Amino acid sequence: MKITGVTQHHVEHAMDEPFHPTWIPGYPQATHEAELFEIETDAGITGLAASPSFAGGLDYEDQLSYFLLGEDPHNVEGILRKLEGFNLVGPRPWHVEHALWDIIGKDAGKPVYELLGAESREIPVYASTGQVIDADERVDYVQERVSEGYEAVKLRITEPEHTEIVRAVRDAFPELTLMVDANKGWAVRVMDEERQWSFAEALTVARELEEIGGIGWLEEPLPRHDFEGYARLREATDVPIAGGEFNNGAWQLREHLTHDSLDVLQPDAALATGIKRATEIAAMARQHGVTFVPHTWTNGLGFVANLHVMTAAGSPWCEFSIDPPWTPAVRDCFLTETIDHEDGIITAPEGPGLGVELDRNQITDE
């Protein structure tokens, strides 16, 4: 089997109202944007992949073709080595590998998690927010999520004083597991510069969260390459420290493990690793006693790819992004079906490959 074509589509989906993600400081996001790729083969099988994007899009169909045309999609390791070269000169290409697994699974008639040596399993979801919202509104939000079956919620904070939001939610829900995301690992600086925390501020927040109690983890309180700072913070607090979602490539994630930087490793298979490297990093994390819970906040195809990885890796939680106007329907806007949980539990699609199909009515450039 050979790859014969690469087709790219820019997908743009309007949200009901502006969304204010902490990772794009000061920016009112009105649309969900993605770059969607179809990798075609001479066997008539097409694999799907998608990356996050932004207004106007980012066109690299031709450049990817130079690296992929004529390759056997079953040669995942060989193509990954070529994509490492692409990573030097172009956008991060790790999402492209998802299409290879989609092709291989469709060819074999098996879901990706089965190709990775796993069987279907139920994974608890945690509701993942993306905005800083005042305490009263967050309490109402959490009440909705609890009524839907969630047993954990991740709250966003960007300043040390925002721990008052966490405390208010804890007071309202004494038994609920709470994760806290500071979003200091990275940012898209379109409008404003985000304010980084000093080590002392990160430690102050961690100590405050210790007092609040029931904290699943404190996520990305420091820049993503500050391996030594993370190690110092981890040593100084009882709150589990999480990160690694946007570190570029397996070697940066190995640095986190080598430095004993994290309790929870979160590489996104669409942003940081691809599927094969994600399972390899998960195995390394297990050997180091580190929990593996990938970041999933990209799009429907990225979410599904991570869900297959989590199934194979034995992850104890699945990040489920929901913070209206960002909803599962927005995330999965170009798929024929919205992927949802059932009473707080989710399983990977059982169809061959990634197990999802495109809604071509949403692909406006055709």
UniProtKB/TrEMBL annotation:
The lineage of its organism: Archaea, Methanobacteriati, Methanobacteriota, Stenosarchaea group, Halobacteria. This is Mandelate racemase/muconate lactonizing enzyme family protein. Its cofactor is Mg(2+). Residues 345-366 are annotated as: Disordered. GO terms for molecular function: hydro-lyase activity; magnesium ion binding. InterPro entries: Enolase-like_C_sf, Enolase-like_N, Enolase_C-like, Mandelate_racemase_C, Mandelate_racemase_N_dom, RHMD-like. CDD domains: MR_like. Residues 357-366 have a biased composition (Basic and acidic residues). One of its GO terms (biological process) is carbohydrate catabolic process. It comes from Halocatena salina. The keyword Cytoplasm does not apply. It comes from the Archaea. Residues 135-240 form the Mandelate racemase/muconate lactonizing enzyme C-terminal domain. Keywords: Magnesium, Metal-binding.
